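I am still learning, so can you show me any protein sequence you like together with the matching structure tokens, please?
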Amino acid sequence: MTEQNTITGAVPADGTAQAEAFAADPLAANPFAAPEVPAAPKDRRKLFAALRWTAAVLVFGAVGTGVAYGVTQPERTDIPGLSTKADGRWVYPALTKPTLPPGAALPFAKDNEDGIHYAGLTQLLLPPPAGSTPDSTLKLEKDEVVTADNFLTEYEDAAREGLKTDFADEGLRQIVGRGWTTPDGTRTRVYLLRFHSSGFADTFKGCNLNMQLKGTRTIVDVDWTKAKSGQSTPSLTGVSLYAESNPVGDEQAKVGCIRSGDVVAVVLQTRKGEVATVPFHQTVILQNQLLG
């Protein structure tokens, strides 16, 4: 979606006004307002932006980081679980950097250590892989916005009310989503939840080992743990992967949780039989890369 680039006032420290507004509707209190961008001298903005993006590209392309732009194509890449051409990875479009408001810093830059994402949130959503079809069951509003209620349909009935209350208390600003189905029958849904700060995002209880996804009980993804063993992957900090515990029935579910500053990404994959390991890991790694 295209967010407004107008700069709004900062959130009060005590969050009282937002809490009252969110209690009525977690996404009603100006959810599309862009985060406040710190002022920077006009003659230095372009230089700083260029330097930051250059540094980001170098980091993503470095050997051993575990996250390289090459994973969008089915080529050999030194990242967990993705080692050879014939490993079943999907072909994703080339990833593109988001458009930032003038003077805005990249997340986790020295002048943005809290990891605030100033780009429009849909620019940070992973694009679908080649050969996939849009998921018509995913309920999206205009510009891929997902309402809190529609997002919460992914969870057990007993968990929804508590999570909705948490959204009001934990500073949820916006949810966007994207979904697709690949020819092998894998259904993927990617949700990005933007909060007022990383502190609020870190309190989100809907993506961890104890999450109550609908019809699913999860355990740590053993394949992910094994794949990372002995590899240096500093850029995967904040990434956790889970798999449905046995018995899984006719369809298996796997979940990727990414905590990146003020944004939490929830990556869900389901497939009859079982979810393939490599494209699941690939999808989570690429989504993490887009979040910076």
Summary: Helices lie at 16-24, 42-61, 148-151, 157-169, 198-202, 222-228, 277-290. The chain has one domain: 37-290. The beta strands are 133-134, 172-181, 187-195, 218-220, 239-244, 251-260, 263-272. Residues 42-61 form the longest helix (20 residues).
